[in-house]
């Protein structure tokens, strides 16, 4: 349908009080909207996820770890500035979003101190020079210089902050609550939020039920949360994100498909990883994908032909976002928006710290 390609068709009205500011404790006590057929749905709690999965199914997780990507510093003139690291382009050279932008002219130098307090006697431990403006993101390319004997990553842990999304404005959440319990590989600037609902106990319970688990890595960056700004969504260009789909995960997917099991992606970043890897490697007949390590710019919207993923666990996403379009490709835009209205009426909590939805293969448009 033509409406599926219009940005305005992915809008909905969300009461601001439904934007979750702090995650529930324990993690798996969040609510779960079960979409189990083309027409039906039901309500559950995340800890009961195993009731809806079958022995032989495979859950695929994104094991990226969020880095302390938000830094506060000062120009050498004394003006305070803020940066959000997005992607390392080369050694100590990063693409970053900057505030206020007018202070980040080419050649400008920024100093970062040994403490966020930035008192007059604080030691400068890191410097950055603005090399160029990035037209795609509106950000800047920054070349960092170490001013201490510690590594860049050690300094990030010391002076950086875990960046919560901008719609989380009054949160009591700890930085650890914005990491999945299985986070391993540092590099993301935002969490793969569908995974935030899992506890170690739930993971162990699912394994004992015969539900297998595998991992990919996608370092969540600007490609995931960059807004779609063109009315014809087919003209939207996704920013590339780094992906790794290891051999062990490929083998588990092949084995799952061979035994008639279902591949359930935990989050849209896993979808992009698996489907992006399949697109990049273009495996021969009889294969679903090959091991892959590289970048993907795959943009999934209604009409997409699925290659690997059978079902999805996902949070509730922002209006007009590429993530909303991805989920629409699985169950249909009109169906998804009607389910969002159900969630609003039932007072589900939305976005990163909110509740979740399980889309079973029986609900997916073939």
TrEMBL record:
<keyword id="KW-0808">Transferase</keyword>
<comment type="similarity">
    <text>Belongs to the QueA family.</text>
</comment>
<keyword id="KW-0963">Cytoplasm</keyword>
<dbReference type="InterPro" id="IPR036100">
    <property type="entry name" value="QueA_sf"/>
</dbReference>
<comment type="function">
    <text>Transfers and isomerizes the ribose moiety from AdoMet to the 7-aminomethyl group of 7-deazaguanine (preQ1-tRNA) to give epoxyqueuosine (oQ-tRNA).</text>
</comment>
<dbReference type="GO" id="GO:0005737">
    <property type="term" value="C:cytoplasm"/>
</dbReference>
<dbReference type="GO" id="GO:0008616">
    <property type="term" value="P:tRNA queuosine(34) biosynthetic process"/>
</dbReference>
<dbReference type="GO" id="GO:0051075">
    <property type="term" value="F:S-adenosylmethionine:tRNA ribosyltransferase-isomerase activity"/>
</dbReference>
<keyword id="KW-0413">Isomerase</keyword>
<dbReference type="Pfam" id="PF02547">
    <property type="entry name" value="Queuosine_synth"/>
</dbReference>
<protein>
    <recommendedName>
        <fullName>S-adenosylmethionine:tRNA ribosyltransferase-isomerase</fullName>
        <ecNumber>2.4.99.17</ecNumber>
    </recommendedName>
</protein>
<comment type="pathway">
    <text>tRNA modification; tRNA-queuosine biosynthesis.</text>
</comment>
<dbReference type="InterPro" id="IPR042119">
    <property type="entry name" value="QueA_dom2"/>
</dbReference>
<keyword id="KW-0949">S-adenosyl-L-methionine</keyword>
<keyword id="KW-0671">Queuosine biosynthesis</keyword>
<dbReference type="InterPro" id="IPR042118">
    <property type="entry name" value="QueA_dom1"/>
</dbReference>
<comment type="subunit">
    <text>Monomer.</text>
</comment>
<dbReference type="InterPro" id="IPR003699">
    <property type="entry name" value="QueA"/>
</dbReference>
């Amino acid at each position: 349908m033509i409406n599926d390609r219009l940005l305005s068709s992915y809008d909905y009205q969300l009461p601001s009080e439904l934007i979750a500011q702090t995650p529930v404790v324990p993690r798996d006590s969040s609510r779960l909207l079960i979409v189990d057929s083309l027409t039906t749905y039901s309500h559950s709690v995340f800890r009961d996820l195993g009731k809806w999965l079958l022995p032989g199914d495979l859950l695929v997780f994104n094991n990226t770890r969020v880095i302390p990507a938000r830094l506060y510093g000062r120009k050498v003139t004394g003006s305070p500035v803020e940066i959000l690291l997005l992607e390392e382009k080369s050694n100590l050279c990063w693409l970053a979003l900057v505030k206020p932008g007018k202070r980040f002219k080419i050649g400008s130098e920024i100093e970062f101190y040994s403490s966020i307090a930035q008192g007059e006697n604080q030691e400068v431990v890191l410097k950055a020079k603005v090399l160029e403006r990035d037209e795609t993101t509106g950000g800047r390319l920054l070349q960092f210089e170490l001013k201490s004997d510690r590594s860049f990553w050690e300094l990030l842990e010391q002076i950086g902050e875990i960046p919560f999304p901008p719609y989380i404005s009054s949160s009591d959440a700890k930085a650890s609550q914005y990491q999945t319990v299985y986070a391993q590989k540092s590099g993301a600037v935002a969490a793969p939020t569908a995974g935030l609902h899992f506890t170690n106990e739930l993971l162990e319970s699912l394994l004992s039920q015969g539900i297998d688990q595998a991992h990919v890595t996608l370092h969540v960056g600007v490609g995931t949360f960059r807004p779609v700004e063109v009315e014809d969504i087919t003209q939207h260009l996704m920013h590339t994100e780094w992906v790794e789909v290891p051999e062990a995960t490929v083998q588990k997917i092949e084995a799952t498909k061979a035994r008639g099991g279902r591949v359930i992606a935990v989050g849209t970043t896993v979808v992009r990883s698996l489907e992006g890897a399949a697109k990049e490697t273009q495996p021969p007949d009889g294969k679903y994908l090959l091991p892959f390590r590289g970048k993907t710019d795959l943009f999934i919207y209604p009409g997409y032909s699925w290659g690997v993923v059978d079902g999805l666990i996902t949070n509730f996403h922002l209006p007009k976002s590429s993530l909303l379009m991805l989920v629409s490709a699985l169950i249909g835009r009109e169906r998804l928006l009607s389910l969002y209205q159900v969630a609003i009426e039932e007072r589900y909590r939305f976005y990163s710290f909110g509740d979740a939805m399980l889309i079973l293969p029986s609900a997916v448009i073939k």
